[in-house]
Amino acid sequence: MCKPLSFVDLDDTLFQTKRKMAQQELNHPIRTGAFDRDHQSRSFMNQEQAHFVDWLLKSTHCIPVTARGTEEISRVNIPFQSWKITTHGAVILTPKGDPDEEWKQDITTQLMPYQFELAQRQQALTEAFKQAGAKAWARMNYEYGETAVYLVAKHTNSTKISELYRIASQVDERLGLDGMYVHRNDNNIAWLPKCIEKGLATSFLISKLRQSLPHVPIFGLGDSLSDHRFLQHCSWFGMPQKSQLSEVLSQSLGDV
């Protein structure tokens, strides 16, 4: 029997922080999902999630599709054996852990015109946060050595998300968003060149794998609206019961 390909988001799909576990009533963490930079447990799975992950690894070619960078995914406590899509789709790693050379060449070429713009936006955000007295930061994410891929901003106080969004919107109005898009997720805002997108990387990898597996079943799993960018390339897809995707779907269907 042909093993399916499963393209799976990580954070808030397979595991989450204890704070979000409490919010979603996913009690009793029994397994670490990911570690922080100090190798302390940061994200967790409950028993049902742990069983699900074990089933995915045994029954499918499980391919993570994540915003996490190559360093961050090394701290995920799941023994993936297949391909990996990381950094919002900027990097595709082979089963051996090496960057796919064709994708690397294409992405680094497309990112070249954005290097100055990303640095300019980081400086503008840093100055705006300082002037407003906001305890927030803007950090560049690099891959392939020193290639800037995207910019992320976060407030150190998760109760002041509105302040973060307000300042970021002011900077966006001043600098514009030509050739870029903004991804908001809870207390994070990311500015990404349009060439960096989970769906583009997933479509590329599916085409590559279908050359040797033309009829392989493909399904996807994700929790957020932005995950639809890659889920739409799967033959089937689903979502956690308590997620942004399921909430919007329920609101849209109503009592149907």
Description of the structure:
- The protein has 256 residues and is α/β, with parallel strands linked by helices.
- It has nine helices and twelve strands.
- The strands form four sheets. A four-stranded parallel beta sheet has the order 4-1-11-12, with helices on one face. The protein has a four-stranded antiparallel beta sheet with strand order 7-8-10-9. A two-stranded antiparallel ribbon has the order 2-3.
- The longest helix has 18 residues.
- It is globular, with a radius of gyration of 19 Å.
Task: Provide the β-strand percentage band.
Answer: 15-25%
Mean of residue pLDDT values: 94
Strand order of the largest sheet: 4-1-11-12
Order of helices and strands: EHEEHEHEEHHEEHEEHEHEH
Q: Please, how many helices?
A: 9
> Oligomeric state of the chains?
single chain
β-strand number:
12
Name the shape in a single word. globular
What structural class is derived from the secondary structure elements? Answer: alpha/beta
In short:
The chain has 256 residues and is α/β, with parallel strands linked by helices.
What is the topological layout?
Blueprint: E1 5-8, H1 18-23, E2 31-35, E3 41-45, H2 47-59, E4 61-64, H3 70-73, E5 84-86, E6 91-93, H4 101-111, H5 115-132, E7 136-143, E8 147-155, H6 161-175, E9 180-185, E10 188-193, H7 198-210, E11 218-221, H8 228-231, E12 236-238, H9 244-253
Parallel strand pairs: 1-4, 1-11, 11-12
Antiparallel strand pairs: 2-3, 5-6, 7-8, 8-10, 9-10
Helix pairs in contact: 5-6
